[in-house]
Amino acid sequence: MKKVFKFMRILASAKFYKTVLLYSIILVSIREHAIAQGSVNILTIPSPYLATGFKGNGNFNALIFGSLTSSGGDTEGRLGIKGDFNFPGSGYSVGTGSIGPKSPDNTDNFVVNGNFNNGASNWGLVGNFVYNTKSPSAALPSLNSAGATVTGGKVDHIIFSTDLLTQYRTLSSSLDAKTNTGTPVQEHSYDPIVINANSLGVNVFDLTLPTPFNGGTLNVVIGAGVTAVVINVKNTSVDISGGSMKINGADDKTSGPKVLFNFPSATSISLSSYALIGSFLAPYANLTGSGGSINGQAIIGGNVGQSNGFEFHNIYFTGTFDSALPVNLVSFTATGERNSVNLAWSTTAERNSSRFDIERSVNGKIWASIGTVASHGESTQLKNYSFIDKSPAQGENLYRLKMIDLDETFAYSRIQSVNVETGTAITLFPNPAVDRILINDNSNIKEVTMTDMTGRKIYQSDRIPSTGIDCKNLASGMYVVTMTLNNGAVNSHKVLIKK
Fold first, then answer.
1. CA 165, 39, 257 angle in degrees (round to 5)?
2. CATH architecture of 326-420
3. 279-282 and 258-262: which strand pairing?
4. What Å distances lie between residue 460 and 180, 427, 447, 448, 465, CA to CA?
5. Where are the domains of the chain?
6. CA nearest to 149, candidates 130, 122, 123
7. pTM score, two decimals?
8. How does pLDDT run across 24-75, given as a tens digit for each residue?
9. What angle do CA 344, 349, 351 make, to 5 degrees?
10. Separation of alpha carbons 277 and 295, rounded Å
């Protein structure tokens, strides 16, 4: 009866008035094809970040790296919070699942790494509750599972380290770097935004929403053979109020695709009276939810404000994002040491992975492969890798990993920067230059090239003439002069041409 009453309360709330029709169409299908939080995908917390004795896996409905402050709403699946939990009222519940399935009875489903502050009563908890500290007046949740436990004084039961957040930020960046398979369509500003996913496997789209996006419709149409849809929302600030979202082609399949909304640049997201159907990756953002819901897994890098019945629903379309990335990269560092650069990286999961190509650039435009390291192929354990660049360029060196799958699909890591001073300095002068560029010593130079900042090559020679590089006909702007030395070292300099 509690679940029935709760569902009636949701229907009556402000968040539902825009989405009743949508839910009436897909609710039966979602109940049939939703899955409990037992499967694992790329949004799951890797096992090294779960403390010894943690019960269950790292598959959470909502994982919040800031604090959660709520005045109305709940989480129907599992909830993990790095900061504090603040709910001054009554009625918050975790794991009960009336829209999607409830959480497992015997796992750690509610974890608060900071302070727990709840009102006089709540709707209860399915599974176990683990917290660090609690306010003196805070009411512990009532337990709705036989044998469930409450444990206080636990720090880092989920190990919310910087590396874990970096993993999700790297994942977000890698998904954002994937090649688009299509383009959203909107003929007029008052028409729905339509995303047609027709390619086999993982479909990727870049989407820039109007700001604000008020009362609009987003329609995702999924064709046969699609395993996942990644929608990279490019806005730095997102404001969605009212309107609706539809998925066609996924809710009526026994093995339908997943939809993931990725926010690689957003620092602020507001959802008001809007049901977002799909998982949610926003590793840099604060989220404000007022009415409405996120229907899938949610990874949120900042704080969450929850009001007017906003909910995290434990609803997943079956299928997987696993093929979206060959590996889960948890760290990537570059460290200069004398005349070399040491690169190190770690993964916690590899699926059909082939290799890592190490790429270097001096301007962020032109990238060259400087080496390859074979991967482990299949792994669910922490794996460490390293590579030494013995011939870095003079000055700034940019590095990235190209993570390549067995079928040659790939994704990029985040970029690391190292400044290197190698041996005897080679100097270009004058800088800024007007008519020509001279060099202090060209005896060790094997080849020299000059490019503009778009990467277009405008000069190439096996040496620099004693009269220098003629730049009388070059437009004003920044250029990169790259010299390959006889010993294989590469030396690059930025030169400003000023007329």
1. 90
2. Sandwich (2.60)
3. parallel
4. 34, 18, 7, 6, 12
5. 2-322, 326-420, 428-497
6. 130
7. 0.64
8. 222 322 222 233 343 446 788 888 889 999 999 888 999 999 999 999 889 9
9. 115
10. 5
Enumerate long-range contacts of 466-470, CB under 8 Å, 24 or more apart.
466/442, 467/436, 468/436, 468/437, 468/438, 468/439, 469/436, 469/437, 470/435, 470/436
Answer yes or no: same fold for 326-420 and 428-497.
yes
| Residue whose entry in the numeric block shows the structure tokens 């604060």 | 286
The CA angle 224-230-232, to the nearest 5 degrees, is 145
Q: What is the mean pLDDT of residues 366-377?
A: 91
CATH architecture of 428-497: Sandwich (2.60)
Structure tokens that stand for 140 in this block: 């512990």
Residue type at 160 in one-letter notation: F
Cβ(290)–Cβ(274) under 8 Å?
no
Neighbours of 225 (CB within 10 A): 12
Upstream peptide bond of 432 is cis (omega within 30 degrees of 0): yes
DSSP class of 122? -
Two tokens, residue 441 = 């010593």
